[in-house]
Design brief:
Strand 1 and strand 2 form a beta hairpin. It is globular, with a radius of gyration of 14 Å. With 98 residues, the protein is mainly alpha-helical. Strands 1-2 form a two-stranded antiparallel ribbon. Helices cover 46% and strands 6% of the residues. The termini are far apart. It contains five helices and two strands.
Length: 98
């Protein structure tokens, strides 16, 4: 966190090394930054999209739309994520299969 030209800037980069070393983590964090401010600095592999990040159905749809447009998820993965409370690790594993 630090002062910027127009006010305060907050670093919402996850600090979990295991998470940030996984394939696709940068893309996932960038997509999450576009839709939520909730808890990204505390993001880890066991973080759940709905219960922990408090993402709504609209947020999840937006996230999946971003990842699908970037060709990071296929149709079966999209359906699996829509139907449950996916963890970050599970989402990254699905992203790495595409």
């Amino acid at each position: 966190m630090g002062a910027g030209g127009n006010g305060w800037l907050f670093d919402r980069t996850p600090t979990d090394r295991d998470l940030m070393e996984m394939c696709g983590s940068d893309e996932l964090v960038d997509a999450l930054r576009r839709i939520t401010l909730n808890g990204l600095s505390n993001l880890n592999l066991t973080t759940r999209l709905r219960a922990d990040l408090k993402l709504t159905e609209g947020d999840i749809s937006q996230l999946l739309g971003i990842l699908e447009a970037e060709k990071r998820l296929d149709a079966p993965a999209l359906e699996a994520i829509k139907s449950g409370d996916t963890t970050i690790e599970s989402l990254l594993q699905k992203m790495s299969r595409v």
